[in-house]
Specification:
This protein is mainly alpha-helical. It contains five helices and four strands, in the order H-E-E-H-H-E-H-H-E. The chain has a two-stranded antiparallel ribbon with strand order 1-2.
Amino acid sequence: MNKIPANKSIRLINFIIDSFVSYFTISLIIITVYYDFDNEKLVLDKTTRKIYFLIGVGLYYMIFEFFFQKTIGKFITKTNVVRVDSKKLSFFNVFIRTLCRFIPIYWLSFLGFSNRGWHDILSKTTVV
């Protein structure tokens, strides 16, 4: 691999942008579909909303990273996801990356000396 790995600052910017975009989009969809304008309330319980957010965030990362090798955040920072062996990203690579994001303490993987989180290491990918 001859591309320069993205540093932690760029990765944090990607995370912030992707979090905003995915949560805003999912919120907009939920409000559009489940808001009762007559009674001025959301007709969706809290647990179901959380499940929709988990599914929505997962789909956001899987769709963008599988089809484009980048998310909106990565488009903005001009970075993308690649396999460490330089082969084309597979659905399995993207699925493992996405699944790892839901590990409750996953963010701790960025506190070490590496610019790669568990979702990179376990899926054999990196961001460049």
